[in-house]
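Saturday, quiet lab. Running sequence design on the structure tokens for the scaffold JK sent over.
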């Protein structure tokens, strides 16, 4: 019996544990999937030492970037992206980092309507936003990051107006705003600039209809939440753990 899990902070809401437990059940596998809910990334050493049968784990907010210096090795794509959300524990006990977020986002985005205007805003600058940017680069999108603090080359939320929103047809929420239990939170952008040619993509999946998505839908935009992306990245994680 092998152990897998999810490393993160305040992750009781997480989809991953239930998904993998159902998956193991369907395949008649005796594995277990645990939530490693920690306050500091340094606790990963204790987790690995305690769980000798740990074969791999997913990584979520806020540790996707913080974990990199603690890894034995990082694969090429994860290194390019600058974020890790999947870790394989080798037979020698070494931690090897991968990124499956970009795979999940690319697969989920490809299921949506074809975008003739490849312009995007990425809300947030954490680990997930880097995976999104990696995909948009590969798809030849012109995009800008939106952040709360002034950073060279980045937009702030105060910079946004209806004209900027109108010009960027894909808006991706990579912030945790709106995630359960804080379901009334949402990114403060000029939703009046959104129209029927927009696609709003929220990496949040709980709830399925966030305020961000609802406000976009009310303006006529197409919307998609992060559930499909999460399933795709979970399947990719399983491939990595078993190769």
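Result came back. Writing it out in full:
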């Amino acid at each position: 019996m092998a152990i897998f899990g999810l490393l993160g902070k305040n992750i009781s809401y997480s989809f991953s544990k239930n998904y993998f437990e159902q998956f193991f059940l369907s395949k008649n596998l005796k594995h277990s999937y645990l939530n490693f809910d920690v306050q500091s990334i340094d606790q990963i050493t204790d987790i690995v030492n305690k769980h000798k049968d740990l074969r791999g784990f997913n990584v979520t907010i806020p540790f996707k970037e913080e974990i990199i210096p603690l890894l034995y090795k990082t694969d090429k794509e994860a290194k390019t992206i600058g974020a890790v959300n999947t870790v394989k524990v080798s037979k020698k006990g070494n931690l090897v980092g991968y990124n499956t977020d970009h795979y999940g986002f690319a697969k989920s985005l490809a299921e949506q309507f074809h975008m003739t205007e490849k312009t995007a805003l990425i809300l947030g600058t954490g680990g997930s936003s880097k995976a999104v940017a990696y995909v948009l680069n590969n798809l030849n999108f012109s995009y800008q990051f939106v952040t709360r603090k002034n950073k060279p080359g980045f937009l702030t939320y105060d910079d946004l107006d209806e004209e900027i929103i109108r010009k960027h047809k894909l808006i991706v929420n990579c912030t945790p705003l709106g995630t359960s239990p804080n379901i009334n939170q949402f990114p403060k952008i000029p939703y009046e600039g959104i129209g029927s040619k927009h696609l709003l993509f929220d990496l949040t999946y709980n709830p399925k209809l966030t305020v961000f998505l609802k406000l976009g839908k009310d303006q006529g935009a197409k919307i998609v939440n992060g559930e499909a992306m999460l399933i795709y990245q979970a399947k990719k994680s399983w491939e990595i753990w078993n190769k």
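Notes for JK: The mean pLDDT is 95. Residues 3-99 form a domain with the Rossmann fold fold (CATH 3.40.50.10860). Ask whether to fix the surface positions before the next round.
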